[in-house]
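Amino acids appear as letters; backbone shape is given numerically. Here is one record.
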Amino acid sequence: MSDDLAGDSLDERYGLAEVRDLDEYAEALARLAEQGMGDERATLLSEAEAYAVAELLGRFALSEPWSALNQLAASLASRIYNRLGA
C-alpha cells in the first residue's frame, strides 16, 4: 500500500511536514541524514546511481555555498563520495 493511501506521507513520517522555511528544512534534512548514517539496511542505489546523485548534489552545493541547504548538499555529496571510495 502506498504512503498516501495509508494516510502517512513521507513528509509527515520524516518530520518535514511542519517546517516553516528553508533553514528549518535544511535542519530537518540534516537530522535525517545523521539518523540515516547509522542505518545498516540494504543498499537502495547502485554505484552508478549513487555517483550521479553525488555529482548533482555537489554541483547544486556550488551554486550558493553559503546557503544552509547547499551546505547540506555538499555534506551529503561528500558522504556518498567517501562510501564510493572516490
